[in-house]
Amino acid sequence: RLHWVLDVLMQEDKARNRTGDSAHNFSLLRQMATNLLRYSQTNKHSLKVRRKQAAWSTDYLAELLEPLIPLQQ
Predict the structure, then answer these.
(1) What pTM was estimated for this model as a whole?
(2) For every one of its 73 residues, what pLDDT tens digit does the chain have, with 9 covering 90 and above?
(3) Would the CA dihedral through 71, 33, 47, 40 be positive or negative?
(4) Burial of 5: CB neighbours in 10 Å, binned 0-12, 13-18, 19+
(5) How far apart (Å, rounded) are the C-alpha atoms in residues 68 and 19?
(6) CB 3.0–4.6 Å: which of 22, 35, 40, 69 could bond 17 by disulfide?
(7) What span, in angstroms and rounded, lies between the C-alpha atoms of 25 and 31?
């Protein structure tokens, strides 16, 4: 299930980073982003829509990142 999401949503198979540890590091970042999107309680849209909303709205992105980093207002 996770591999399908990473492949379809994040297009991981098309990634061109193959040298050193970059492939593993980017894979971890993609997994973390997918988990943050998946466990968001405020938005009940698909993962694809949530990912686009996080890219378009800094407020929604801050809301997603708040459990990781307590943001000051």
Answers:
(1) 0.68
(2) 666 676 666 676 667 776 778 777 887 888 888 888 888 877 788 888 888 898 899 999 888 888 787 656 5
(3) negative
(4) middle
(5) 29
(6) 22
(7) 10
